[in-house]
UniProtKB/TrEMBL annotation:
Disordered: annotated span: 1-93, 636-666
Protein's organism: Patiria miniata
Designated name of the protein: Uncharacterized protein
Biased composition regions of type Polar residues, renumbered to the chain: 643-660
Superkingdom classification of source: Eukaryota
Compositionally skewed regions (Basic residues) per UniProt: 1-11
Length: 1207
C-alpha cells in the first residue's frame, strides 16, 4: 500500500538540438525507447509529484464514452523522420489487394480503428502521460471485448423480450400470458417471463408436487391444499437468463384443522415423506442436504440425511423451531431436468406452512401463516398452474377478512401476521388502491431484498445482486426502472454471467463428495456423471475455439482442462468411457477459487458501461439504510482477529508494518518503479524547439511513436490477416497483443548486446588450479569447474557474499577422513542457479545446497558404503538439530514421496536408514528441508545429499553417483573454497568426463537442459523454464538468451512466483507449529521491539537466535511483510488484477495477523484456519500467476523473433 503514496516522477532532459536527436528510435526494441530517467537524463520534481497518482488502468468518468470519433478525424501526420514507418503502398497483386480490402472493411465494420483512436485520445488528453500506457489500452479493449457480447442485442429487442401480451383472470392481480397456460402471477412478474422456455420445467414441477397431505388415522379431520410455485432465476428462464444457474421450487401447505401442534406434526410428516421419496431408489432426483435455519438470524445449518437419521428428535425439534420463527425449511437437491439427456441442475425445494384454525362450535377461522412475509411468493416468482395462483391470492384475501373480524386475542395482542393483514384490510381505499399492491405489503418485501443486498459483496456476489435488483426493478414503472431492467438483461447475458452459471455446480460437487460413498457403484457413477457435466460446462464457457478469448481466459481454459482431465481415468470395464478418481474437497475448492479470480475480472469489465446499474453504490446504500458495516455484512463465516486493533483497518500493513521499507532481493528500480514515472507534457513542451503552433501535436505524436504503438498495431493486423478466419469479436485477440506489448514495454528497454555486457563479467574469473581445472572468483571466495557460469556471479555485497554467509553454518565439518576401509571427503556447493542471485536473479526463493560425500573403497563394497553414507547423514542432521540455529521440517526421499520429521528421526532411526539405502539404490533425491531466520523472513533451504562412490576396476578409476542424473550440475555447482572444488573435481565424476569445455560434454549439458526446458514449458512452469534457460545461455555464452532470461526473471511473473513461494513458506511454518507446539517460542514484548528495529538488516545476516530460531514475533513479521509485498505486486499496472480481487485478498490478509491494542504486539494465529486462509490466497493468485507467465513468455518470444541486435 505504501507504494501508492510514492511520488510519481516526471521525465525531462535538457533542450535538444532537434526532436529527432532527443527521441531517436533507431535500433530500439519494442519497449521504452527514450523515456529512461535512470540512464543519464536529468530530473527535477514536476507539479505531478504533489498529486496522488491514479492507477494507470483507471479512466476518468468523463472519458467513459461509448461514441467513436467521426471518420473524418485523423491523427496528426507523422514527423518527417518517421514517415517511412507510416507509409502504405497499394499491393500490385490482385489477390493480396482483395485480402487487404477485406481486412480494411473488417476493421471499419468492427470499429477497431475508431475505438483505438478514442482510447489513445483519452490517454493523450492527460496532463501527464504514463511511462507505459499499454495497461490503459488493455483495460479499455478488454471492456470492449465484453461490450461486444452485451450490446449485440438492441434496446428495442430487449424491451420486446421483456414484454409479453397478458391475459387477466377472474381473480384480482393474477395474470397469464396469452396463448399459454403455464405461467401465472402478478402482472409485473408475468411481463418478464417466457412461457415457452418454462415448459422444460413442467415435468420437474409436476414430479416435485406432493399429491396429498400425509395424515394418520387420528388426523383425518384435518385437510389442506398444496400450492407449488417457481421462484428465483429459473422463473425468468428465456428472458433474463439463458440458462438459470439454479431451480428453486416453493411448496406451500395450507392446512385446516382445530389444533396448531397437530398441524405442525402433519407438516413435519409431509416434509419427512418428501425426504424419504428423494432418497428412495425410484426417485430420479438427488437430495444433497437439508438447510434448517438456526435460532440466530441469518444463520443456517446444513443437515445431511445421515445426520438427520442419527439425531432424529433433535432434527425435528430444530425444524419445528424454524417453522415457528417463520423461516422456511429448504432441501438442497440435484434435480433431473431432462430424462433423455440425463441433465441435472442444482436447486432448492422450500417448504412453507399456513394454518387455518377451524372449530365446529364457531364459524370463525383463525389464520396462522408461517411464511416470512405475506404475498412474498407472488413478488418472487410464478405459479405454473392457474388454480394454484388463484387459490394463493383468494386464500390470503379471505383470511385477511376473517382475521380482521376476529379481533384481538385473549391477551389483547395479535400475532404479527394478523396485525399486518388486519391493517391492510383497514387500509383499503375507494380510490382503487388494493391489498396486494399496498405499501404495507410491498415495503416489507422490498426491505427483505435490500437486507439481502446489504449482505452481498458488490463484485463477488454480482449475479446474486443482479437477481435481487431485478426483483426490485420489476415494480418500477418509471423510465429509470426500464433502463435498469435493460442493463440487467445485458449483464445477465455477459461472459461473467455465463461463467458464473458454469461454476455453480462446483458447490454441489463439494456437498456430494462429503455426503455420498464414492466406493458405491451407483453413487460413483452419479458423481462421475455430474463431474463430466461440470467439466463440459466450465470449459465450454471460455472455450477459445467457440469464441475469441484473450490470453487470461485461454490460459485458464488450458490449465483447468488439464486439471479436470487428470481427475479422470479410463473405465476398466469399458475403454470408451471414463470414471472419476477419488474426488477430494481441496481440489474442488482450488478450482473454485481459480474460477473466482476470472469471475471478478469479467464482472468488473461487464459493469463498466452501465449508467444506472452500480452494485457498489447499491450495496453501500443498503448497508447505510440498515446500519450494517461491511465486515458485519460480509461475514460469511470468515475468521475475525482475536484482538481487534484500534488502528486503521484499511490494510494489514497499516496495522502491522514498521516505518522502514523491507528489501526484497536485488530488485531493479527501473522496472519495479515504472508505475511511478510519468511524462509531463508541459515540461517537455517548455524545452522543445518545435514551433509553438505545432509543439503539442509534435510532443504527443513523438510519444506515440516512441511507445511503438504502430508496430504493435501492425503486429495485430498481421495476426488477423494470417489467421484461419476473421473472428466475429476482434477485441480479445487485440487484448492479448496489448498485454504482451505492456510486458515488452516494461522489460525491453535495452538491447540484448548492451544488457548482456552489463550482466556478464568474464574478467572476474581466474584459473586457480590448472591440474583440476578449477576457476574462481577470488574476491568473494567462489570456485567452480565452469568459467562460463562463474562469469555470471554477482561479486557485489548484495550478491554471492550473502549466499556464502548462509552456507557457513550448514557445512558438515565433523566427518573424519577414514572410516574402516573407506576414505571420505565432503564438500558443500550451491546449485540450481542459486549462485546467480544478485545481478542475474533478483529473488532467492529456495536456496539449494548440495552436500557431496565422496567415499572411496574397494570394488563390490558399495553396499557397505551406502550404509556408511546413511550414518553420516544421520549424524549431520542430528548435529544441525542440536545447534538449534535452524528450523528442521524434515527429510524427504524420492522427490517427496516419503517424509520423516525431526521427531521421527529420533524415534525411528532404523526407518531412516532404510529410506536412505532404498533412495540411494534407486538413485533418488534425498534432501533436508530447513528454514533459516534472515532479517524479516524465514528462508527456505533444501540441503541435498549426494553420494559418490569411487573404486578402482582393473587399474581404472571408476565413479558411481547415487543421485538423479544431472549433467548440468557440474556447470552450476559453486563451492566456497578451492579445496572443496578440487575434491569435487577428483571425486564428483568430472575427471572421468575430461575437458568440460569439449564439444561432447557441452552437447550433453545442452541436451539435458533442452529437455528440462521443454518439460517445464509443457508443464506450464514458465519461470522454472527460464531458470534452465539462464544456465543454458551461460554455458553457450548466448547473449540473446541471457538477456531474455534476465528479463523473465525480473518480470512481474517472477515476482508472483516469489510471493507465492512465501505463501507456501508461511503455510509450512504454521503447520509445523501446529504439529510441534513446543518449538514455537512466545517472544516477549521487548524482544519483539528489538526484532522490529532489525527489519532492515542485510539479507545474509541471521535474526536473533537467543530465544531459538522459531518465535511468534518473527513469524508475525514475516506474514506482515508478505502482505505488504503481495499488495504492492498486485497493484502493478501490468498485473491486470481487478480491484475487487485485490480487495478480496486484502480482506483475507486482515485475518492472518492479530494485533493487541495495549501492547501493539503482533501474532500469527497458529490454527488450521490460518493455513486455509493462506491456501485460499494462493489459489486466488495462481491463475494470475499462470496467465502473467504466459504473456511474459510470449512477449519475449516475439521480441526474439525481431532480431534486434541486427539493427
Amino acid at each position: 500500500m505504501a507504494s501508492q503514496h510514492q511520488s510519481r516522477r516526471s521525465v525531462r532532459g535538457g533542450p535538444p538540438a532537434a526532436p529527432s536527436r532527443q527521441w531517436s528510435t533507431v535500433g530500439q526494441p519494442t519497449g521504452k525507447a527514450n523515456y529512461r530517467p535512470m540512464t543519464g537524463m536529468s530530473r527535477r520534481p514536476s507539479r505531478q509529484q504533489l498529486q496522488k497518482p491514479a492507477r494507470q488502468d483507471s479512466i476518468p468518468e468523463a472519458e467513459r464514452n461509448e461514441s467513436t470519433p467521426d471518420q473524418n478525424e485523423q491523427p496528426v501526420q507523422p514527423l518527417p523522420n518517421s514517415k517511412k514507418r507510416y507509409s502504405y503502398g497499394q499491393p500490385s497483386d490482385p489477390r493480396v489487394a482483395a485480402e487487404m480490402a477485406v481486412l480494411t472493411e473488417y476493421v471499419k465494420e468492427k470499429s477497431l480503428m475508431s475505438t483505438m483512436m478514442t482510447c489513445c485520445q483519452a490517454v493523450l488528453q492527460r496532463e501527464s502521460l504514463p511511462y507505459n500506457p499499454y495497461p490503459v489500452f488493455v483495460s479499455w479493449m478488454r471492456r470492449e471485448a465484453e461490450r461486444f457480447h452485451m450490446f449485440a442485442k438492441s434496446t428495442k429487442s430487449i424491451q420486446a423480450t421483456l414484454t409479453s401480451k397478458q391475459q387477466s383472470t377472474t381473480t384480482p392481480h393474477i395474470y397469464g400470458v396469452k396463448g399459454h397456460s403455464n405461467a401465472w402471477g402478478l402482472e409485473a412478474v408475468i411481463n418478464a417471463v417466457d412461457p415457452q422456455a418454462l415448459k422444460r420445467y413442467d415435468w420437474l414441477v409436476e414430479d416435485e408436487t406432493p399429491t396429498k397431505l400425509v395424515l394418520s388415522d387420528e388426523q383425518q379431520e384435518y385437510s389442506g391444499q398444496i400450492l407449488v410455485a417457481m421462484v428465483g432465476p429459473a422463473a425468468f428462464t428465456g428472458t433474463m437468463y439463458r440458462k438459470a444457474p439454479s431451480i428453486d421450487i416453493r411448496v406451500e401447505y395450507v392446512i385446516y384443522g382445530p389444533d396448531l401442534p397437530t398441524a405442525l406434526l402433519i407438516f413435519n410428516s409431509c416434509i419427512s415423506e418428501d425426504i424419504r421419496r428423494h432418497i428412495s431408489a425410484d426417485c430420479p432426483h438427488r437430495i444433497l442436504g437439508i438447510v434448517v435455519p438456526r435460532s440466530q438470524p441469518n444463520e443456517n445449518e446444513l443437515w445431511t440425511v445421515e445426520q438427520a437419521r442419527e439425531k432424529w428428535d433433535d432434527f425435528w425439534d430444530t425444524v419445528r423451531d424454524s417453522v415457528l420463527q417463520k423461516r422456511p425449511i429448504v432441501l438442497q437437491c440435484m434435480f433431473l431436468l431432462d430424462e433423455e439427456t440425463a441433465e441435472y441442475r442444482i436447486g432448492n425445494k422450500q417448504f412453507i406452512l399456513h394454518f387455518v384454525e377451524t372449530s365446529e362450535n364457531s364459524q370463525q377461522e383463525r389464520f396462522r401463516s408461517f411464511a416470512e412475509l405475506p404475498y412474498l411468493t407472488l413478488y418472487e416468482g410464478i405459479f405454473l398452474r392457474k388454480a394454484h395462483a388463484e387459490t394463493y391470492v383468494m386464500t390470503l384475501k379471505r383470511l385477511q377478512e376473517t382475521t380482521n373480524q376476529s379481533g384481538a386475542n385473549a391477551n389483547g395482542h395479535r400475532e404479527s401476521m394478523e396485525d399486518s393483514l388486519a391493517s391492510l384490510h383497514e387500509a383499503e381505499r375507494d380510490d382503487g388502491s388494493d391489498l396486494v399492491n399496498a405499501d404495507e405489503v410491498r415495503e416489507p418485501i422490498r426491505a427483505k431484498w435490500q437486507r439481502q443486498i446489504a449482505k452481498c459483496h458488490p463484485v463477488r456476489d454480482a449475479l446474486i445482486l443482479a437477481h435481487l435488483t431485478f426483483l426490485l426493478a420489476l415494480s418500477d414503472r418509471s423510465v429509470q426502472g426500464s433502463e435498469v431492467r435493460i442493463e440487467l438483461y445485458r449483464f445477465l447475458h455477459s461472459t461473467a454471467a455465463s461463467w458464473y452459471a458454469a461454476t455453480v455446480l462446483n458447490s454441489a460437487l463439494q456437498v456430494l463428495v462429503t455426503t455420498i460413498d464414492q466406493e458405491n457403484e451407483d453413487d460413483g457413477k452419479f458423481l462421475t456423471q455430474q463431474f463430466l457435466e461440470y467439466k463440459t460446462k466450465l470449459l465450454t464457457a471460455i472455450n477459445p475455439e467457440l469464441h475469441a478469448r484473450s490470453s487470461e481466459m485461454y490460459i485458464l481454459h488450458r490449465n483447468l482442462g488439464n486439471v479436470l482431465q487428470n481427475m479422470l481415468i479410463p473405465d476398466p470395464s469399458d475403454a470408451s468411457k471414463v470414471v472419476l478418481k477419488a474426488l477430494d474437497l481441496n481440489t474442488l475448492q482450488q478450482i473454485q477459487n481459480a474460477c473466482l479470480s476470472l469471475q471478478l475480472l469479467l464482472t468488473e469489465d461487464a459493469m463498466f458501461f452501465f449508467k444506472r446499474l452500480n452494485f457498489k453504490t447499491l450495496v453501500r446504500g443498503c448497508r447505510e439504510a440498515f446500519n450494517m458495516n461491511a465486515a458485519k455484512a460480509a461475514d460469511a463465516g470468515k475468521k475475525k482477529p482475536q484482538v481487534k486493533s484500534t488502528k486503521s483497518s484499511n490494510s494489514l500493513t497499516a496495522q502491522t508494518s514498521s516505518p522502514a521499507k523491507m528489501n526484497h532481493g536485488v530488485e531493479v528500480k527501473e522496472i519495479t518503479q515504472q508505475k511511478n514515472i510519468v511524462i509531463d507534457v508541459e515540461e517537455v513542451k517548455s524545452f522543445s524547439n518545435w514551433p509553438r503552433i505545432m509543439v503539442t501535436e509534435a510532443v504527443l505524436m513523438q510519444y506515440m511513436v516512441d511507445i511503438k504503438l504502430d508496430q504493435v498495431w501492425h503486429e495485430y493486423l498481421l495476426e488477423l490477416l494470417t489467421g484461419d478466419h476473421l473472428p466475429p469479436n476482434p477485441y480479445p485477440r487485440l487484448v492479448t497483443v496489448l498485454r504482451q506489448a505492456a510486458h515488452r514495454m516494461q522489460l525491453c528497454a535495452e538491447t540484448n548486446a548492451s544488457l548482456s555486457t552489463k550482466l556478464l563479467r568474464p574478467d572476474q574469473t581466474k584459473l586457480v588450479d590448472r591440474i583440476n581445472s578449477i576457476h574462481g572468483v577470488t574476491s568473494v571466495g567462489a570456485y567452480g569447474l565452469s568459467p562460463r557460469t562463474l562469469a555470471g556471479l554477482d561479486a557485489e555485497p548484495s550478491g554471492f557474499i550473502k549466499i556464502a554467509k548462509l552456507m557457513e553454518g550448514l557445512t558438515n565439518k565433523e566427518v573424519v577422513a577414514r572410516r574402516g576401509q573407506f576414505q571420505i571427503e565432503v564438500s558443500l556447493a550451491v546449485g540450481r542457479g542459486c549462485a546467480f542471485y544478485g545481478r542475474l536473479v533478483p529473488y532467492l526463493i529456495t536456496l539449494h545446497l548440495y552436500e557431496h560425500y565422496y567415499i572411496r573403497g574397494n570394488i563390490g563394497a558399495d553396499s557397505d558404503a551406502i550404509q556408511l553414507y546413511a550414518k553420516l547423514l544421520y549424524d549431520n542432521i542430528s548435529s544441525l538439530s542440536a545447534q538449534n540455529h535452524h528450523i528442521l521440517l524434515g527429510v524427504f526421499f524420492g522427490g517427496g514421496s516419503r517424509y520423516m520429521s525431526e521427531a521421527d528421526l529420533v524415534d525411528d532411526k532404523a526407518t531412516f536408514f532404510s529410506h536412505v539405502v532404498d533412495a540411494a539404490r534407486k538413485k533418488e533425491d534425498i534432501h533436508l528441508k530447513i528454514y533459516q531466520p534472515i532479517g524479516w523472513r524465514y528462508l527456505r533451504i533444501h540441503k541435498h545429499f549426494v553420494l559418490h562412490y569411487l573404486f578402482v576396476d582393473n587399474t581404472e578409476d571408476r565413479h558411481e553417483c547415487y543421485s538423479p542424473d544431472d549433467p548440468s550440475s557440474v556447470c552450476q555447482s559453486v563451492f566456497l573454497s578451492q579445496a572443496q572444488a578440487s575434491a569435487h573435481a577428483r571425486g564428483g565424476g568430472a575427471k572421468q568426463l575430461g575437458n568440460l569445455e569439449s564439444a561432447t560434454n557441452l552437447r550433453g549439458v545442452n541436451e539435458y537442459l533442452s529437455k528440462e526446458i521443454e518439460g517445464a514449458l509443457d508443464g506450464h512452469q514458465v519461470m522454472p523454464a527460464y531458470q534452465h534457460i539462464l544456465c543454458k545461455a551461460l554455458v553457450n555464452k548466448d547473449k540473446k538468451l541471457i538477456a531474455d532470461a534476465w528479463r523473465a526473471l525480473h518480470s512481474l511473473a517472477y515476482q508472483l512466483d516469489y510471493i507465492q513461494a512465501i505463501n507456501q513458506d508461511l503455510q509450512d511454518l504454521v503447520r509445523y507449529a501446529l504439529l510441534f507446539p513446543g518449538k514455537l517460542i512466545k517472544a516477549s514484548a521487548s524482544s519483539q521491539s528489538l526484532a522490529k528495529g532489525r527489519g532492515n538488516k542485510a539479507k545474509g545476516e541471521a535474526g536473533p537466535s537467543s530465544q531459538g530460531p522459531f518465535n511468534d514475533a518473527a513469524l508475525a513479521k514475516f506474514a506482515s511483510v508478505y502482505s505488504e509485498k503481495l499488495t504492492s505486486v498486485l497493484q502493478e499496472p501490468c498485473a491486470f488484477v481487478p480491484s475487487s480481487l485485490l480487495q478480496v485478498i486484502q480482506d483475507k490478509l486482515q485475518t492472518i495477523v492479530d494485533v493487541d491494542n495495549q501492547t501493539n504486539r503482533q501474532s500469527l494465529p497458529i490454527e488450521q484456519e490460518t493455513i486455509s486462509t493462506l491456501k485460499e490466497i494462493w489459489q486466488l493468485i495462481h491463475p494470475v500467476q499462470d496467465w502473467t507467465s504466459f504473456d511474459v513468455h510470449k512477449a519475449l518470444s516475439h521480441h526474439d523473433s525481431k532480431d534486434i541486435d541486427s539493427k
